[in-house]
Structure formats: structure tokens, C-alpha cells
Amino acid sequence: MKFTATALPGVLVIDLERFTDERGYFARTFCRKEFAAHGLDPLVAQSATSFTARRGTLRGLHFQRPPHAEAKLVRCVRGAIWDVAVDLRPDSPTFKRWVATELNAAAQRSHYLPTGCAHGFITLTDDVEVCYQMSAHHEPAAATGVRWDDPAFAIAWPFAPLLLSERDRAWPDFTGVD
Q1: Closest Cα partner for 81 from 170, 166, 159, 167?
Q2: Which of 52, 33, 51, 53 has the alpha carbon at shortest distance from 42?
Q3: Annotated catalytic residue, options 25, 38, 62, 119
Q4: Given this model, what pLDDT does residue 109 score?
Q5: Residue 95 pLDDT
Q6: What phi and psi values does residue 167 have, to the nearest 5 degrees?
Q7: Which residue has the higher pLDDT, 175 or 69?
Q8: How many other C-beta atoms can be found within 10 angstroms of the C-beta atom of residue 178?
């Protein structure tokens, strides 16, 4: 795996190293030793998948409050997404800044988000499947989010979403993390 830093401390793009032969290829998508060697949380408490049928669907921006904060490893295994991380760590030099990367099935690139970052994406194609590995179990009472179009972040989405859940539309203006 090739780990590439982004403009947000601790947020990385991870490209797979493929071992190819006449049958196709083999690539590791996760290695606890390599993650730890790069200073990342190698704990995987749970894995999940989401399927989104329509291009232009926005999911997010989601995170869990401490003490249930979670690091996430995100990979698109079908279709394509524009994946966003927002730094919500008050002591971070990049507090309230964001980075985005395109994740798609062909490139098989992953996005690693440390605890303290909100996550969201917009689908660039129909029929998108996204796989997640999280460092903490889902805790409904700690699950929260920030609005995708909150002026506090000024995220330059590639286009306006065509579909958004009521929950994600209703997040209040960002005033800080509790």
C-alpha cells in the first residue's frame, strides 16, 4: 500500500499495490502493521457497506462524538464518489478545513480519516457501493453531523446534490464540537 498525506494532518489517501499475473491481480486493502507504522489507528471494530442507486446523492457529513469518536477507512468498490473529510479537531492547525478525493472502483483508492474528522461523499455515478472500516462501534447517541453546505467549511462540491436525506439537510450551523 502507498500512503499519501493530504493537506489535513492524519488524513491520507491510500493506493493499493497490485501484484499482477495472467489470472489478474492481488492487493492488500488493509494491514495492521503498515497502518501502525504510518501512525494510523489500526483497530477495526466494525465494517460496513452502503449502496446508493442514484448519481448526485450526498451522504454526510457524519461523525461520532467522543468518547465514541471513530477513525474511518473508506473505499469505493463499485461506481465513483467524491469523498470529503472535514477537520473538526479544535486544536488542529487545519480546524474547519476540508480535503476531498475521488474514490472509484477502477482505482481502488482508499481515504483514511482519523478521529475528529467528519465524513461525507457525493455519488458521481449510479449504483455506488462504498465499504467502510471503523475503529469504534456505532453508538447512536454519539452519532451526529454537520451540514454539507455549511458556510463555516465552504466545501466546493463538484455539483449540487440531487438527493439528500432529511437528516443530513437538517443539521444546524456549525458552532463547534461539543
Answers
A1: 159
A2: 33
A3: 62
A4: 95
A5: 97
A6: -60, -45
A7: 69
A8: 6
